Here is the input.
Amino acid sequence: MASHAVDAAASGESPTLLLIRRSDAALAAALRQRYRVLDSFASGEPLPAFLAAAAAAAAPDPPRAAVIVSSSVVRVDAALLDAFPSLRCVVNTGAGVEHVDLGECARRGVAVANSGAVYSVDVADHAVGLLVAVLRRVSEAERFVRRGLWPVQGDYPLGSKLGGKRVGIIGMGRIGSLIATRLQAFGCVIYYNSRRPKDSVSYKYFPHVLDLATESDVLIVACALNKETRHIVNKDILDALGKDGIIINIGRGAHIDEAELVRALNDGRTAGAGLDVFENEPEVSAELLSMNNVVLTHHMAVFTLESKSDMCDHTIANLEAFFSGKPLLTPVLPK
Amino acid sequence: MPPPALEPAASGDKPLVLLAQPLFPEFAAALKGRYRFVLAADADAAEAAEARVLLVPGLKTVTAEHLDRLPALGLVAATSVGVDHVDLDACRHRGLAVTNAGEAFAADSADYGVGLVLAVMRRVAAADSYVRRGRWATDGDYPLTTKVSGKRVGIVGLGRIGSLVARRLAAFGCAVSYHSRSPKPSAPYRFVATARELAADSDVLVLSCALTEETRRMVNREVLEALGGGGVLVNVGRGGLVDEPELVRCLREGVIAGAGLDVYENEPHVPPELVDMDNVVLSDHRAVLTPESIRGALDMVAGNLDAFFAGRPLLSPVTL
Here is the structure.
């Protein structure tokens, strides 16, 4: 990207970019090097005021592209697209596009991109980290040692072996396959469910999540969130998984009926859980906070130094492709 | 149960086995009725003179003096993998056989080692603590963590445990190198001649070798400095492999980025400075401990005892 080495905003040649974010100063700085950025965070205004002002100030070069930092609470819908009729490209920094009306974008000729594979490896690594932490009680041991209990109470309850565990992965996309390869190296047996079987993998396919749960010791949620997958892990699934079963969620909180999961953990009908996402973040049910057989992380599976930098590069690569009339690198199409 | 092949049964059918300390309940239950167990400290003169086997549950220290009291001894059987708690020189001089738990604990130790790598680099345990203390809703930014996949991994000791650690981390796309006493030609990883060079070339250094006079405090200031500011140390070997006070200093000073420790120089004592650090993951020497591996260790112990008394080759002899 050497052509934009000088702060492009100063040269007056750079295209206008709408940036909607609540954080990510590094990304904003990198974008300012190349584009004339209308930056929601820098404006200091509440979002509706910012959007109104940005729409008004758009001339003479209204924004043809927008970058949505996924942590932002903004819907890319008819209203937003009406406010910025010049938009032809929306680049999301995250993988999920639940906040984007893909159909509406398609009708208006607005191309949508997401983070593609940028985060996949880190999410897969985190899923494995959560599973080992739950099965082998790594977090519990930590608390035990830090509270000075080791000399006093002697050895803490044993964990459970990974090798030979049947791991059922819900969703066998990029993340699911990366999780599968890693867990196979631990001697786990991999099963999966997805809308259709994948020719590229040789793991046993289950057309129905209920059957997957019945045959598995561990369930890992690694699919996209949509109407069909909301509460895909519900009471029936938890019952089928059984009292020795473990749930790992690195998808979205809404994939799991959280109240039901809490009840099942409380009653001993589910053995443990590793959760990076929750239905009502940043709230986590008080009962979970006091359980020893769960590992809880704060929706951080994507947040590594490396992926931050990769995401920045990837976002710019998509924008550069758009502005030079080329196809987006990681387009998302309506289903 | 076959009668002892080499000696007439001195008292009853069951061979006498002295215990360095009481057996774990699971072991006691499983071995009940097969051997006559007597605590070494309680053995009378006749039993001490007769005993051919000393079984060492856990990590009870066995010295040359202990061994000297047992003139008929032929086998020291450990329930662990590491045998640094046994005076191996004395065993060698006496011509004693020593057995350990063999492969029984290898997979679980390797799994835990990799779990510690993930827990340190991706801050899984620290984040769990953050959430439990209710800080997610109130606090702002949390530090970015460090990607694990694709990092350079250095393994010290490519035995049973080290090779399983290697295989697991290779599945994360990590480049694996190793240091051991001698290269393993069949291992598909790069051999490095010294621990210091290995540390210099690694983002993560995993210790899974035996504790011997040569390896004691092998991870010293020089090695830690070579590992460097972005580097992470994970120890599922023995605490004695690391200069522990130096490690604490290096963590405090940011000489290395973090550590995952299952073992310490003076268990169950954990240096108090570590308890305040959130870039370390601490565990209570549990890497081996799953019910399945304990059963596996039990099978190994029973198998070694049976083999010894039947005059058959031992299952998991330790080279002295």
